[in-house]
Amino acid sequence: MATLLLPSHAASHHRRAVFSGGAHHHPLLQPDLLADALHAAASRRRRPIAVACRAASAAARAKAPPSAGAGPPPQALAKEAHKYFDHAVVSVRAGDGGHGAVLNMPPGPSADSAPAKTRGGGRAADKGKAKKGSGKKVSFKRNYDGSVSLPVGGHGGDVVLYADEAEESLLGFHAKARHCAKRGGNVGATGTLSSRMHNGFAGETLRIPVPVGTVVRRKKGSVLADLAHPGDEVLVARGGQGGISLIDAPDYKRGKAMALSPNVMRDVTDKILTHGQPGEEISLELILRVVADVGLVGLPNAGKSTLLSAITLARPDIADYPFTTLMPNLGRLGGDPTLGAMQFSSGATLADLPGLIEGAHLGKGLGRNFLRHLRRTRVIVHVVDAAADDPVNDYKIVRDELRMYNPKYLERPYVVVLNKIDLPKAQDMLSSLALEISSVGCEECHDSNTSKEKLNENFNRHHMSEDDDKELGDYPRPQAVIGASVLRHIGIDEMLKEIRTALGKCSDHMLPGP
Ligand SMILES: Nc1nc2c(ncn2[C@@H]2O[C@H](COP(=O)(O)OP(=O)(O)OP(=O)(O)O)[C@@H](O)[C@H]2O)c(=O)[nH]1
């Protein structure tokens, strides 16, 4: 067993971004704007246009397909889940606001008894009591300024996405790609204003669970949130504001009605104000990047899944044929009390990725799209079949595919596990293999005395400059090369020690973004 210890300098933890969709505030609900707006609405007389717009949008919605895009057929989803589990396009729609109502004043002297508006004294002046012809008192709910409080339509339901540990993939979003929140309730109008009237009920917020690690972005647009931790959430569509209510009074009573409330209908076009606002609608792209501290990579059949099941409680499929692993499997390492708090003592998560082959970047094998799942990892473990024909070349192939996908991956601390040393062929070759592999890379990139500033400098230089021109030899050497047989439990402790050391060395300056 040969072990080569070198320093590491990659580190990351997750950034959190929370987006709040643009608001659909009803400007007319601001008391000081209300009177002006009513007046303006009456003078503009735009009812036909507004109604036409509503009708057009309703027709468009009716014609809209039930899902955001032509998703894969269910058979394809079942058979080729690995192609769909980490990416989905969905469309969400928040609920419309409920409608307000056009109300009449109750018969009798109620309007006559409207309290004169007093500065802040509406409540004190009168609790809204009015005498009917019958002598019965009628009371209204009042605002702070003494005006009668008219009911409003309920707010439409918002749409929120939240990271839920119980969710494992985005496959469900291919089967149902459109999600709509409920609309707000209408004002329960009897036609006549009374104190028993209440606002429309608010539509319930639609909370949609997504797997932890889901990046939410506008379709072909900016990133809205990276739901990297359980419980992270983002408001993606805001429900529409409810419509207001108006008092309809005949001309001769209008003056008195206006003393009671500014929401007096002066024109039929004002009725538009009673309509609830439409809820926001947005198309979203969901991209899952599994959240794991350690990524296991290697050619098919190298023993990655066997390794994961040997050191964690995960039970991935293991078989003697390539591409048994089609989707990343996750497992959690037990804690290491010797590392102390904040040093990953509570256990790190490992992700076993599908096998890579040469030409994966050209789409061979399973392609390399799943390499996006390495993005959040801090440490990479290369699993190499030491009993293969040319293990060093196998190792270089995988390294090269990583480099072509994202050169930053090669800057992360990594450990090489020469697996299957229980087989005689591997045993014979072990020391020479370890030596050869540990010499691939540049030594000074891994000097343990390298200062943080220098690491940053290196990091920036590597990322700003011609990464494409760099060879494998220009990137850091492995932190350790370990001979092991994960099937026979040989070398496991040593390997775990190296993985934990690499994790412990990670610092935050190499934080990968969403
Ligand atoms: N002799 C021996 N066989 C092993 C060892 N580790 C894994 N294997 C065998 O190698 C085969 C492939 O193992 P997997 O764990 O499925 O390999 P993988 O890298 O996950 O393969 P993919 O899913 O194709 O990426 C299985 O038959 C394992 O039993 C080992 O240490 N010694």
From TrEMBL:
Ranges for domain Obg: 82-291
Biased segments, Basic residues type: 129-138
Organism domain of life: Eukaryota
Limits of the OBG-type G domain: 292-504
PROSITE patterns given in the database record: G_OBG, GTP1_OBG, OBG
Positions of transmembrane segments: none
GO CC, alphabetical: mitochondrion
GO biological process: ribosome biogenesis
GO molecular-function term, one example from the UniProt record: GTPase activity
Residue ranges of the region described as Disordered: 105-138
Keywords attached to this entry: GTP-binding, Nucleotide-binding
PANTHER family, alphabetized: DEVELOPMENTALLY REGULATED GTP-BINDING PROTEIN-RELATED, GTP-BINDING PROTEIN OBGC2-RELATED
NCBIfam families cross-referenced by the UniProt entry: small_GTP (TIGR00231)
Name by which UniProt lists this protein: Obg domain-containing protein
Taxonomic source organism: Triticum aestivum
Gene: LOC123123246
